[in-house]
Structures
1.
Amino acid sequence: MKLNFNDITLDISSNGKTFTLALDDKTIQAEVLQAENGKLKLLIDGQHITAYVSSDNAKRWVTVNGQTFVLTKSSGVRRGGHAHHAAGELTAPMPGQVRALNVSEGEAVTKGQTLLVLEAMKMEIRVHAPRGGVVRKLFVKEGQTVEREQILIEIEEN
């Protein structure tokens, strides 16, 4: 199976509870230790990791160490895809409340920059810029409650 997030394609093969993840020339071994109610306890290359997962058909939102990644299934043909809308719209990975808004309209941003922080289920979720550009429009403000897939920010690519 292939999963895409941002501009990266991850190849995953499974043997029951053990997975092999291939990214470029790096291979990672992962094992699911426990899975219940959207919470996964994993053993990845000998390190214990907790991940929170929610899904909507082909999309999965995975939060690890406060960072959320949107994964989409790939047919293996698509290249350079990204998990955000084509117009550069970033959406909420899950329902929550905007705790911090770190940018303003017209501000230049770089790929990976934390744009805002959501609080959901007693955890902080940092929403990062998928690519460099300029913040065209903010659709939320600090303290606002948002729903899953609600548009948060629109970024215009440079």
2.
Amino acid sequence: MWEVEKIINFKKDEYFIDGYAFVFFGEDGTKLYFNYDNNWAGLLLDNGQFLWTVGEKQNVKSDYHFDIEIKNPHYITKQDNSVLLSEQNGIHKIDYYSRKIETLIDCKKSGIESAGNCIVDSNGDIWINDVIGYRVFRFDKKGNLIEILGNGKPGFSKDDTPFEKVQFNWIYDIRKGTDGNIYVLDSKNYAVRMIDVEKRIIKLIAGTGEAGYSGDNNNPLNATFGGNPEEHFDGPWSLSLDEFDNIYVGDTQNHVLRMVDRKANIIKTIAGNQNVIPGKRNNPDEKNPLKINLPKICSLEYYNERVFIPEWDGDLIVLKKK
């Protein structure tokens, strides 16, 4: 069971500059923040001050600022004692203690059309989803290319597929599971797939490959996720996993948050309302507090029995396990 713990409006909070924002968490609870619209990121302390910031200089308090140009930061995560930041042009490694920053991976030189996340696996390898390039890139911790999954053309299979033959279709999100595997939101295939790193195969976890809104309380392989052909970024947008590798999907076009319960092997809707009201602010219904307005879920994060749901309009909804 879940409950709405709080709703934060980024645009009204004094240290969040206008523009939609995201907060990710390191394993130690470190808050890693970035602002997509205003091209900057930072490590956020509990008092609202930043330990460091990077990108375009903003009117926020920070201990140190790395003055480099970044464009539309997409994901930020920890790598050992450093931080990796993905943005349109590359993957940057930030070492606050030595106050050094380096471009670990140059997207243009590597052939990445549209870098998404930069996920660090159990071996220290870096996985990057090429959103509109239909591929997943794997680099070692020093930024050397190991392999590419996908041939650059859209495709889909419900069957287990080897690395060498797999195809995707607009990959909006990837995450690492506690099982050591990499989970892929194959968005325009309306599916969640798993990269089994040891066996070198890709497995279908949820979705039929068709758009819709069905399958709740049943096998995730029979579920459909929302589609809207009028949206440039069609399909679900966001993905996250908890400590049990339960999967949370921001089913953007259906305006709901869904969960794949791995133990029970079912999918269910946790929060949201398919009959969304555009422009309505989030004031939970007293009779059904989880029937919240989610016009456009643009990211997800799970940490400490909470799901963080950033909304395109500037709200951050925090759900807590009861």
3.
Amino acid sequence: MSGDENSVGEHSRTFVDVLFALQKVARTVSGAHHSPKAFENNESISLESALRGSGDIGAMLATAWAVRQTNKQSTRIYIKNVKARDFEALEPFEVEGRPWIDQTGAFRMTAEPGMARVTVAPKAEKPEVVEARFMRSNGATQERIAETLRVNVRTIRRWEDQGLLKPDTPGRKQ
């Protein structure tokens, strides 16, 4: 589509015509739709938070499933039905790809329906903290780190007090 993706009038008729044409030749029409950028940090997953653009798209659907990757290394995926028309949907569940796809050819369920809890992917660590940790591990003083990073020495002291400058800080990116 060209133009404003949030403009209902501009695209709805064309989209509906294409969907009805597809339904004439297929029993099921499945689509993949990308979410808004804010979705990855949103703890509440709903039809509105999962779909980009107009709410009219969501109104046309018979069912919609929101999918969020919660762990990149293991390809862990949280799956939740956000719209179920005329059927009782499963509760949210989680599956994991690595290493299971290589070993068995399929994802492995890690949280059965009703047992999965939505998680927000951890935020990327600030590059300044990574650099400060590296400098500290190589013997740089707090003053030298603050000068190099152009921050106040109190910031470096706070990071040190929080344990962010230790080489074995849990949760930091390797």
4.
Amino acid sequence: MSVSLTIMLLCGVLFADEKTPATLRVAALLGPSGIGMSYLFTNTPDVGQGTVVSFETAGSVDILLPKMLNREIDIGILPPNVAAKIYNVNSGSIIAGAIVGNGMLSLITRDASIKKLSDLAGKTISVAGQGSTPEYVIRTLLAKSGIPADSVTLDFSVPTAEIAAALISNKIDYALVPEPFATVAVMNGSTGDKPVIRAILLRDVWNANGLGTDFPMTLCVVRKEYAEKYPATVRKFLEAYKTSIQWTNANPAEAGKLVEANNMGLKAPIASKAIPSCNFVFIPADEGKQSIEKLLSTFLAYAPESIGGKLPDGSFYFK
């Protein structure tokens, strides 16, 4: 082989490795899931080679997901079970980039006698979201704690956004909610001789039952086609996202202002107060595989169809 041909082939390999996209389109969910990304909305990351990064918000998973499937969004935020289901039933169209939020579920109540799950025997708990992480985590933990399933009633009749107000007004006595709803309830229910308290943090019970130190609630996900074509760009964005989360955790007051300024669905005081309890983390997907699988196994036990009938294979985890 001639020297010139060898050089041409090497150049071809180098240029192939340096493929860069014109755009990177990112979407955050309104509410707590988007808090950790609000810094990037104001401080647009440089992912290299002139790629234009754009951000938008989506009011719900039902709005964000179709945009990803229609290639209108390249990177987004989804609950682990939704990401797994789409991967399993849509030819691996979406993969996990990182865990960006761990367990932030609290059992809130005015009843100071509640110290452990067994204290809830005979009680009715309003749960935020039927068929989602709160339901299957509490069912799993009740079973692991040896508490008969029929001794605790799970009530899904109160909309998640109304649970805090219902607890504060004594319409309900016990509730299982994520952030910022727990923070809102504690803030607004702090008066009187029986203030609203976080009686149980479910991640502590998860850990105590040998299921892992924590469980994921939020994943940063990437269109598989985009990740395969532009892995370097995705890695640079994920590094920027990691920085954003670290800054958010370290600067809750300033982060709260950005959340409100970027119309992320929360007022600054509530966002700032909730951040320390939101359990924002950044764990690369391949490093968090075991944690993700532990959570998905709870869905597999109670509602296999909710994750597409099986645990996703290794290709689900971006490296």
